[in-house]
Amino acid sequence: MIGIKRLAEHLNVSIGTVSRALNGRPDVNEETRKRVLEAAEALGYVPNQSGRSLRQGTTNAIGLMIESGPETAANSDNFFLGVIDGLQGCLSRHGLDLVVLPCADEEPHAYLERIAARRLVDGMIISATLRHDRRIDFLTKANIPFVALGRSGSSHAHPWIDLDFEGVATRAVDRLVANGHRRIAVAIPSNDVNLGFVFYDGYTAALARHGIGLDPSLIIRARSTEQGGYLVADEMLRMPVRPTAILLIYELMAAGLYRRFREAGMLAGRDVAVIGFRESPLSRYLSPTLTSFHVSLRDLGIALAESLLATMPAFAGTYPMGITHKIWPMELVEGESDAYRIR
Question: Residue 23's closest CA among 93, 89, 75, 90?
Fold first, then answer.
């Protein structure tokens, strides 16, 4: 392992040039930057992070805030593992570390204020954005670089990337209506997370476009878990006139939904059409396979990292896209769960 002085001597360039190249500064030409990065990797260069942080007043770390608790801990979801892979892959190229900040049993806004007061990170990625999210107001006023995974009703012009919830709801309703379905239920979160509102808006707009009136009894609010899916199916079975199809906002709900249907002698794809939200290993190994939508989580993580770096002065020259507002596309993956057609 060598330090920056020996790396500069090896390349016969100044320490300042090496430092600027390693930090992604725009005033270093690409050929020099490539030489520095290749030599750093080959020679095992290790930066003195503590000294750099003291000199620059930075931590060289980015925080990813994830809300956790008994509900999320019990889930077998791999969503954030894929996102983290992309985030760290991008950040590590700039000598930045990713710090996962799980918020459990604490009000998210208060938790974020505490993290900011301790100056643990240079920038933030927040998730599970609420309809009106106080964290966005706080980060904006505190001038802390951040990007949100998810939109919010908050009015600030902050960077965000969100999955295409409206598009998924629209395409799912279109697909079901084409197969003769008119009583289409939807399962959405029972909390104030904004994605539920966005999905609901897409669902109601799609129904209206097909001339189908909104039936409030078909809006089922539940936790986004396997147990939540079980309770959704139970509520459907108790309806005087059952829906013939159901949209799930979260793919893990399908496991509980399938179980409750089987207990009642019913089968998804044969007696009721089911469309999930995101394709996952679970959706492929369910029987019948779950019709859902694919998203590259690694690419999403890379895009989040780049959107954040674009707001940080040290990296804005490398990522000159400015404030990002992006709906992340999702691709339909046909399964067997929505094979049931109305004849």
Answer: 93
